[in-house]
Amino acid sequence: MELKPPVPSLLIANRGEIVVRIARTCRTLGVRSIAVYSDADKDALHVQACDEAIGIGGASPSDSYLRADRILEAAARSQAAALHPGYGFLSENAGFAQACADAGLTFVGPPPSAMRAVGDKIAAKQTAAAAGVPILPGYAEHDQSSRALRAAAQRIGMPVLVKAAAGGGGRGMRLITDTAGLDDAIEGAQREARSAFGDATVFLERFVQSPRHIEVQILADAHGSCVALGERECSIQRRYQKILEESPSPAVAQPLREQLEQAAIAIARAVGYVNAGTVEFVLDREGQFFFLEMNARLQVEHPVTEMVTGIDLVAQQLTIAASAPLALANTSQRGHAIEVRVYAEDPANGFLPSTGVLTAFAAPDMLQVRNDVAVMRGSRIWAAYDPMLAKLIVHGSDRPHAVALLARALNTYQIGGVATNLGFLRWLVARPEFEAGATTTDFIDRYFRLEDLQPLSQRRAAMLAAAGALPELRFVADVRPWDPWQALGQWRHSAIPRVFKLADGTVHVERSYAEDAWRSSRDGEEALVRDVGDGLFACTESNRVDADEFTAWLDSGGTLWAAIAGNAAQIARPAPPTDMADAGHRHGGVALRGAIEAPMSGTVVKVNVSAGETVKALAVLLAIEAMKMEHVIAAPYAAVVSAVKVRAGQSVAAGDVLVELEET
């Protein structure tokens, strides 16, 4: 059905890929799109994707994207008719939804009453139980004293989950396996919940061993119609944050699907829900499901539902918000879709967030592949925001075809300048357990080992470096006008053969006119290097059965980067450090003997130690919040704290000294 423009203009109160995605539907419908941006985001991709953009404050979300007053001022200035909150930030804030209505803005989401009913997870569980939907045993009362929570945990039995009542995304959540850690876990969950959602209320529920996380997408209009659009499986998670989502679930057959959909619709009707929403369930080993929560917004993983149903969920949201009735001729699913989230994080360093400027960004351009991106080459990745760079979504005729397509797409994805999880994702989709559909929430804990991420072969990388022009190799300048290496400026090949002496061998490089490429060889290994455009160069090993394919690029500083299967590595030799402190900073480790550094930029939220205190190995020294997650810093050995250099609430940069220790 062709949808008519539901509103003349829409302000999108968010940032990143969700703004770009919503703006895409706005263009299709003829709706004028309006972006808002912080000082850090003035040149961001989401600003360029919209018809108009208005600045709303400082880089910190509390000074911009969480400032309801400034967002409403921007809506008034731009004469927006409606507002879409995206996800995160103010998307599930009932007070903000009410303020939009009071200002005469159409809020693209559920009414404040429904948002309040499902936003409080304690109340939502009570609603689900009243509607006849199974819930997990737990504690969902308003007495938040340590005594009440401890007694409830002992009654439920270990293991137990502590969860934030007002939020999601894994924030404010702790798994407790021993009552000895109960108080610290509750305190940490409450602190993180207060920081992320402004509400420290938590609840407890029984932890289900090796479950699946299943959710149902619903659409409901203001005229009493409510439909379910099938399920998504979101079991592949790390720290309770989803990494991969797919639809349909390999564990859900039609009878169970109907039960899940009926339960989701029952909960939506019970709270008077209108617009798009998601009802989440946990599925145990016996196939029993239990209600977890309802998200009163569009989900990050909504594209997989769009791919298998052909329904534009944002278009439906706008139509419902304009008081039109649902008019879906067909809600059946076709084929299989999988989404992975591409993060700026370093799997080799405990998945810590990575910040910096993207020196390269090339998403896969393939049939049946969708890229929802937040960045472009030259984008700066900030510690103040979520580390997700993009989402990669594939659609196949069935699950095996979708998995194979996802693997090929990940192999062509190239990002430089920051560490990413691309290599980790490639490992994930190649696991036989994943291919078999044996996906549970403990998948990563059960199967992932750091050594599974194969780094670039230094031997092959050195050969590639010669063909790709390391900055220290000064090539002669008599280049033919059509030479593909002309784009490299001063780092150019001539048409004559060259021999380069590297620290670990000799590489011969010559121009192959017949192949329109440069051929490099060393010790019997050969590779061809071609210009593939957009500053990228492809290198293919030409005489190996297990040949690897590289992609290389030079950044603006003359550093060569190379990547295999999404694993990017800096090939250029770094300049020698000027002193020992600088050397430690470059390696992200200990700058000085006994000095513990910040592994990323962020805000210190708690300091557990003081000068003169004795600590055991692995004792938690302090906690840092970065990219919306709390990270603990532990003592690497038993020691005496000689100095504490930071305080709670202080902002720190990567490499700043936090604590000084004297090993005992």
What would you call the quaternary organization?
Answer: single chain
C-alpha Rg, in Å?
26 Å
CATH superfamily of the largest domain: ATP-grasp fold, B domain
How many domains? The number is: 5
- DSSP helical segment count: 17
CATH-defined fold name of the largest domain: D-amino Acid Aminotransferase, Chain A, domain 1
| Low-pLDDT stretches | 468-495, 572-592
Strand content: 25-35%
Specify the biggest β-sheet.
8 strands, antiparallel
Query: What strand line-up does the widest sheet have?
Result: 14-13-10-11-12-15-22-20
Which CATH architecture of the largest domain is right?
Answer: 2-Layer Sandwich
For the secondary structure, the number of strands is 39
- Structural category is alpha+beta
Fraction in helix: 25-40%
The residue-averaged pLDDT reads 83
Text of the CATH class of the largest domain: Alpha Beta
Overall, the morphology is: globular
Determine the N-to-C terminus distance. 72 Å
Explain how this protein is built.
With 664 residues, the protein is an alpha+beta fold. 25% of the residues lie in helices and 31% in strands. It has 17 helices and 39 strands. The protein has an 8-stranded antiparallel β-sheet with strand order 14-13-10-11-12-15-22-20. Strands 24-25-26-27-28-29-30-31 form an 8-stranded antiparallel β-sheet. The protein has a 5-stranded parallel β-sheet with strand order 3-2-1-4-5. Helix 4 runs antiparallel to helix 5 and helix 12 runs antiparallel to helix 13. It is globular and about 75 Å long.
